[in-house]
Design brief:
By secondary structure, this protein is mainly beta. Among the domains are: 576-766; 806-952, no CATH class. The protein starts with 8 loop residues before the first strand and ends in an 8-residue tail after the last strand.
Length: 960
């Protein structure tokens, strides 16, 4: 049917019609049958009707409806509107800006040229926009959408759609269900929509959102921005500088090539930066992050993250959570931040910081810089020359191999250098430091530190605090620095210095140089040929085995030599110094010689060369020993104490002042002249004083090592034979039936009222015990503890002895007076004496006049004095003594009210009695010992309150 020219209306009927509208705006209806209709020129309206029709609009702007059936509808030229109708239609817009609807059925819709609006509607449609900026909507069903050229808008709507953007900057939305979307070329904007979508951006800088569902999103080539949104997404940036965000869910994100910015957001994400310089943020929750190649910046953010930087110089921050951070290769910078992190630098030179939390840090290979941060960290430098700082907390640090520098900073740290030449500072806190192998420099700094140099030639300084230092193997240089340190140089030739404080300093094995320096130090050399110096103050020095040089320096020093040691050179230095020599249990022959002041030698299979020593204390122990000190001249100025031990010993004293203790059943002899002190000890002794003013005691207690001469005596029973020899002697036999011989000279003999005699001279031992008139003699014996009368007319240099308690002084000047006006002031210079004080009056008549009040007042100047129960004053000292008694018939012993006055400017040592005592310290730096008993009072000088030492025993004591 042909319409010719004009606006025709043609109806086809029931058969298969062919209709040609011709020219004009025609209305063409195919009706039933498989019709073929051509609109030709003009704006035609075509309806195919039933069955499978072929409809062509040809020129101009046509409106075509396929109707029912599987129709082919083509608009041709012009802006056509085509609806395929029901059935599986093929709709082609061809040229022009067409509106194309597939309608029901599985339609194929092609827009052709122009900016087409295409809708697939129901069914599984294939929609193609062709050239031009097309808008395509798939509608319901599993559609395929192709944008074609230019910038298309594609919407898959419902169904599992496949969408291809084609060329141009397309905007694509997958819609519901599980879509496959390809942006292809240019910069596409893609939204996967609901469902588990697969998206590839293709070429260009694409913007991709996965939206809901577990999406797979690929940026492909270009600088893409991809967000997974909700769901467990897999995101690949591929080539280009991509920005990738996982969104919520547990995402897998790969930056691939290019310098990417990646954020895992919420969820437990797995992130790989790929090649390039990537910036990665794990986001919330526990993420696993790999920087891979390039110099990456990685932040774990929240959660317990696991991070590996990969190759390149990475910067890693764990942020919150207990993170595991690995730098891998490259010069990495890692911060654990909050949480208890595990950090490994990997190879190369890394900078590692634990920050907050109790972190475990491994530097691995390379020269690393490590800081533990706050809290107690565990740090391993491992290989390389590392710089490690523990910072706050109680840290444990191991430097590993390499020359490490370690600083503990605050906290009680445990610092180990391991191998390499390490430098370690404990800093604040009580640290434990071990240098490990090789040559280390160790410094405890503040706190009470334990320092072990281990192997190698170490340099160790204790710093402030009371430190315990062990040099161990190697030639070490050790310094205690401040406070009271315990130092052991260990094996090797060490240099050990105690510095300030009361130190215990030991050289141990090797040829050591050991110095106590300031403080009251104990200095020992150990094995090897050592050089020891006590330094200032009163030190104890023991050279040990080897040929040692021992110098006490300033102070009253105590030098020790024991059996088995080699030949030593001992120098006491300034002060009153003592050399203690302890022999073995064998039978020894000991020779002591000396001529020059302050110098003497001691030989017994070894040689001790000694100088500047004031006291020699020789202990023989077991064996039958022989000691000959007779060649020691008096001008040497040496005071000698010899203790015989258990064997049968023969002792020849020096020409100076000797004190000899024989031990059990030991015959003693003091062959040389001199003013000697001889003690028989327990047993029946035979003692010869020879010439000189000797003090011979048949019995005495055991002698403690290092006690100064003189000291307190407690008399013990025994039947002794004592011969004073020539000189003015003082002989104390003790209890027992003694044979006491004073010899030639003016002697004082105390014999306990048994078998005693005085021999030649003016000896009161031959008289009754209460003969007390010393007016015409220079020897005085008063053997009564309950003395009521004393004739106070003694000549100068009188030796006085009173029974009971004792008083002892090396030089004594006493001015005697009394509360009673009848007493005279008698300036009498006294020699050393033992005294148990009673009440003193001028004569018997005075007792009747003052029966309830008597006393003794003395101003005593002493070089060294002892009184009451052991009080002593150091040299020099001035002590005012008041001994008071109410009843003159009572002895005044150590229960008296004792007044100790050290108010001068010297340094006093004041020791009270068991009674109620009063003591005045004065301006010097004083030491006070107040004994048990009644209430004591110490008058302390205000300017010395921080320096005086006051020791109170039981009783109500105080210092006003």
């Amino acid at each position: 049917l042909n319409g010719d020219i004009g606006n025709d209306t043609i109806n086809g009927g029931l058969n298969d019609d062919t209709i040609d509208g011709g020219t004009g705006d025609d209305l063409l209806n195919g009706d039933s049958g498989m019709d073929t209709i051509f609109g030709r020129t003009g704006n035609d309206t075509i309806d195919g009707g039933d069955d499978n029709d072929m409809l062509f609009g040809n020129e101009d702007n046509d409106t075509i409806s396929g109707g029912s059936g599987d129709d082919l509808a083509s608009g041709g030229y012009g802006n056509d509107s085509i609806n395929g109708g029901t059935g599986n239609d093929t709709v082609v817009g061809f040229q022009g800006d067409d509106i194309l609807h597939g309608d029901d059925g599985n339609d194929v819709v092609q827009g052709g040229d122009g900016e087409d609006l295409i809708t697939g509607d129901d069914g599984d449609d294939a929609l193609s926009g062709g050239a031009g900026m097309d808008t395509i909507s798939g509608g319901a069903g599993n559609d395929e959408l192709r944008g074609g050229g230019d910038n298309d808008l594609l919407d898959g709507d419902a169904g599992n759609d496949t969408i291809i953007g084609g060329t141009g900057a397309d905007t694509i939305d997958g819609g519901d269900d599980n879509d496959r979307i390809f942006g292809n070329e240019d910069d596409d904007t893609i939204n996967g929509g609901a469902g588990n979508d697969t998206v590839s951006g293709g070429y260009g800088n694409d913007l991709i959102h996965g939206d809901d569902g577990d999406d797979t999103l690929n940026g492909d080539i270009g600088d893409d921005s991809i967000t997974g949104d909700a769901g467990n997404d897999r995101i690949n940036g591929n080539a280009g500088m991509d920005t990738l965000s996982g969104g919520t869910g547990d995402d897998i994100i790969n930056g691939d090539a290019g310098d990417d910015q990646i954020n895992g957001d919420a969820g437990m994400d797995t992130i790989s930066g790929g090649t390039g310089v990537d910036m990665i943020n794990g986001g919330d929750d526990a993420d696993t992050i790999f920087g891979n190649e390039g110099n990456d910046i990685i932040m774990g953010d929240g959660g317990n993250d696991t991070v590996s930087g990969g190759t390149g110089n990475d910067t890693i921050n764990g942020n919150d959570g207990d993170d595991t951070l690995n730098g891998d290769s490259g010069n990495d910078t890692i911060h654990g931040d909050a949480g208890d992190d595990a950090i490994s630098g990997g190879t190369d030179n890394d900078t590692l910081n634990g920050n907050d939390g109790m972190d475990t840090i491994n530097g691995d290979a390379g020269n690393d810089t490590i800081s533990g941060g706050a809290d107690g960290d565990t740090i391993f430098g491992n290989e390389g020359d590392d710089t490690i700082t523990g910072d706050g907390g109680n840290d444990t640090v191991s430097g590993g191999t390499g020359n490490d520098t370690i600083n503990g900073n605050d906290g009680d740290d445990t610092l180990n250098g391991d191998s390499g030449n390490d430098t370690i500072h404990g800093d604040a806190g009580n640290d434990t430091i071990s240098g490990g192998l090789d040559d280390d420099t160790l410094n405890g700094n503040d706190g009470d530190d334990m320092i072990n140099g281990d192997a190698g030639n170490d340099t160790i300084t204790g710093g402030l605090g009371s430190d315990a230092i062990q040099g161990n193997a190697g030639d070490d240089v050790v310094s205690g620095d401040e406070d009271n340190d315990l130092i052991n140089g260990g094996d090797g030739n060490d240099q050990v210095n105690g510095n300030a404080g009361d130190d215990s300093v030991h050289g141990d094995a090797g040829n050591d140089v050991v110095n106590g320096d300031a403080g009251f130090d104990t200095v020992t050399g150990g094995g090897g040929n050592d050089t020891l110096s006590g330094g200032g103050d009163n030190d104890v020095l023991f050279g040990g085995t080897g040929m040692d040089q021992v110098n006490g320096d300033d102070g009253d020093d105590f030098l020790i030599w024991q059996a088995g040691d080699s030949s030593d050179t001992n120098m006491g230095g300034a002060g009153d110094d003592i050399l203690l020599v302890e022999m073995n249990d064998n039978s020894n022959v000991v020779n002591v010689t000396g001529t020059n002041p302050g110098e003497f030698d001691l030989e017994s299979g070894f040689t001790l060369t000694n100088s500047d020593l004031e006291f020699l204390d020789l202990r023989l122990l077991g064996g039958d020993d022989e000691v000959d000190a007779s060649e020691v001249k008096a001008g040497v100025g040496l005071r000698t104490r010899i203790v015989g031990g258990d064997g049968s010993d023969t002792v020849h004293g020096s020409q100076g002042v000797d004190e000899i203790h024989g031990g059990n059943l030991a015959p003693l002899s003091n062959a040389a002249d001199g003013n000697d002190w001889l003690f028989g000890q327990g047993g029946d002794d035979l003692i010869f004083g020879d010439a000189g003013n000797d003090r011979i005691h048949g019995d005495a207690p055991a002698v403690p090592v290092g006690d100064a001469i003189p000291y307190e005596l407690s008399l013990i029973s025994g039947d002794d034979t004592v011969f004073g020899g020539d000189g003015n002697d003082l002989i104390n036999g003790g209890l027992g039936a003694d044979l006491l011989g004073g010899g030639v000279g003016e002697d004082v003999i105390l014999g306990s009222l048994q078998q005693d005699y005085g021999n030649a001279g003016n000896d009161p031992g031959d008289r009754p015990p209460f003969i007390i008139d010393p007016s015409n003699i220079n020897d005085v014996q008063i053997d009564a503890a309950n003395l009521a009368v004393f004739q106070a007319h003694a000549a100068a240099d009188t030796d006085l002895l009173f029974g009971g308690a004792w008083f002892l002084a090396t030089s004594l000047t006493a001015n005697m007076t009394n509360l009673n006006e009848n007493f005279d002031m008698l300036p009498v210079p006294f020699r050393p004496m033992f005294a148990g004080w009673s009440a003193f009056v001028t004569d018997k008549a005075d007792l009747a006049n003052a029966p309830t009040m008597a006393g003794f007042f003395g101003h005593v100047d002493t070089g060294m004095g002892s009184f009451a129960d052991g009080a002593s004053t150091a040299d020099p000292a001035t002590v005012d003594l008041n001994f008071l008694s109410i009843d003159p018939n009572d002895a005044i012993d150590d229960e008296v009210f004792l007044t100790l006055d050290g108010s001068g400017s010297v340094q006093d040592i004041l020791i009270g009695s068991a009674g109620a005592d009063a003591a005045t310290g004065g301006e010097g730096v004083d030491r006070l010992e107040l004994r048990a008993g009644d209430q004591d009072i110490f008058f302390q000088h205000p300017m010395n309150e921080p320096q005086d030492v006051i020791n109170f025993d039981s009783g109500l004591d105080g210092a006003p």
